[in-house]
Amino acid sequence: MRLLLLTSLLALLEWEQVRGEDYCFKTDPKRPQTLEFGSKSDYNRVRGDDAGKFNVPGCKAPKMWIYHRHGTRFMEKDDIGKSKRLGELRDLIKCRNKNKMITPNSLCDEDLIGIKEWRWNASYTVDLDLRISAKRYQTYFPDLLPRKYNSTYYRFGHTDTHRTNASFKAFAGSWFDNSTGVSANISNELLLAYKNCEDYFDKLHMLDDGSEFMMFIRGAIYNNTIENIKKRLNLTKLYKDDINLMYKMCRFELALKPKENSVWCAVFKPEEVTVLNYAEELKNYYGSGYGLNASEKLNCLVVQDLLTVLNSTVSPNVVAYFADSLGLQMLLVSLGIAKDNDTLRADNFEKMANRKWKLSELVPFGANFVAVKYNCNEAADNVTEKAVFFLNEKALEFEGCKKGLCNWSDVLKRYKHFSDANCKEFYCKEEKPKMTRKEFKEKEYEEEYEEYDVYIDDDECNAIAGDPEGEEQTQIIKEEENKKKEEKKEKEALHTYFETAVFTINGGEIIAPLMVTTLLTVIVRQLL
């Protein structure tokens, strides 16, 4: 008997040690992975506050030019259509973990309960981030941004999409006391240059077999990450589509309700998010970043517009455009912003941990690039025209500038090749493309939703996974769990627990820390 109790004591101590090493998203106060959600990051988690510091002595700001990514949105229609699969995954995870022993890399109690209780919710508030950032800029530059709308003073434009139109309206509604009559131009030719170039999709090779993206997701780092996720969920069947869907829901839910929690984020440890994020950034780097040579030239018209507006002495004084993530990425490339000395590749994942090209910091939901022109008649260095570039309210550093404040003449020299260019001949060709946009999207879909070669041999959990709602099976499991709870109360001897399962109780419910403390106390007394 003493030997059995001693064995149980050692097992419990080992269990406590293992449990202490497990990661728990719900109870993690820092949640570092939320800063690495790529282009689906929440703006307020990564924004700066430098813009409020640029009240330049001896200078006044008469001009502002803004390129704004649309605000937080929900998933694409195709992904929303897969929402029932999340319900299946919830029930499958619940079923597969009801009799699960505690092991390293397990879901903690709180995270597992959160996933069990998750329900689909399509009611979210969007574009709140744009309203808040609009008010902050107005606070920073009250003289430049009057609250009374004037169609000569202000000019707005957006792409022909609902999300950018909604973002423009949210932004304008926050800026002006009365936004009635505030209008914007549909500016596809200016803001969607890559779609207007006939051969753009021919130049995209980030999904080819030999691409850096494909080599990375077929490599050991990525696939070990997938295996770890599968083991933590105690699943034997998992699709790449499932991983993407849970990851998307995690990021979208957290962006849409940043003060709350997305239970699907519990599926991914911080180091695993770093891997998934790097895969996404490889695809973007070679599709719209520095890895695509054409990216620098694609926003020729946009850079010309920026230079023309700021260099002019007449209205409009404030210009704001609302577009998408790809357009903003290409603008950053055109301006030479966030360029690393080395390229992102499949074989330098660890080396590039501190890279500049991080989508979460560059193009989160509601990201904004703002250029402010200053007239400095009383400047100490006698340079009358200056400028500051902000990205997400952080002042950008350029060579030759002082803490972000640049001489306007240096800016004009740096981008002279754009101002002198005939943009229609700068990049686009008239030849017929080999691949249409539709064909490229089909290729991207096929690569993204490749199935993993795994199987499941659990008939009970298979039945749940095949039920879109899972309500009937969920009720059965709930009744079984309640029945087992009643049986647990009837047990008279504590050692009976260890004879059935050392680490589990109540047919699968994880032993709470308080229960462990009680059991340890009883065992020690028996040994003494």
Short description:
By secondary structure, this protein is α/β, with parallel strands linked by helices. The protein has 25 helices and 10 strands. The chain has 3 domains: 2-22 and 487-527, no CATH class; 40-74 and 126-197 and 287-351 and 359-424, Phosphoglycerate mutase-like (Rossmann fold), CATH 3.40.50; 78-104 and 205-285 and 436-469, no CATH class.
Separate helix tally = 25
Query: What separation lies between the terminal Cα atoms?
Result: 13 Å
What is the CATH topology assignment of the largest domain? Rossmann fold
Level-2 CATH architecture of the largest domain: 3-Layer(aba) Sandwich
- What shape does the CA trace take? globular
CATH homologous superfamily designation of the largest domain: Phosphoglycerate mutase-like
Q: Helical proportion?
A: 40-55%
| Main sheet: strands, sense, barrel | 8 strands, mixed
- How many domain units? 3
SSE-based structural type: alpha/beta
Could you explain the architecture of this structure?
With 528 residues, the protein is α/β, with parallel strands linked by helices. The chain has three domains: 2-22 and 487-527, no CATH class; 40-74 and 126-197 and 287-351 and 359-424, 3-Layer(aba) Sandwich (Rossmann fold); 78-104 and 205-285 and 436-469, no CATH class. The protein is 46% helix and 9% strand. The chain has 25 helices and ten strands. Strands 1, 2, 3, 4, 5, 6, 7 and 8 form an eight-stranded mixed sheet that branches. A hairpin with a 3-residue loop joins strand 9 and strand 10. Helix 4 runs antiparallel to helix 22, helix 6 runs parallel beside helix 7 and helix 11 crosses helix 13 (270-285). The protein starts with a helix and ends with a helix. Residues 3-21, 445-458, 466-474 and 491-528 have low confidence and may be disordered.
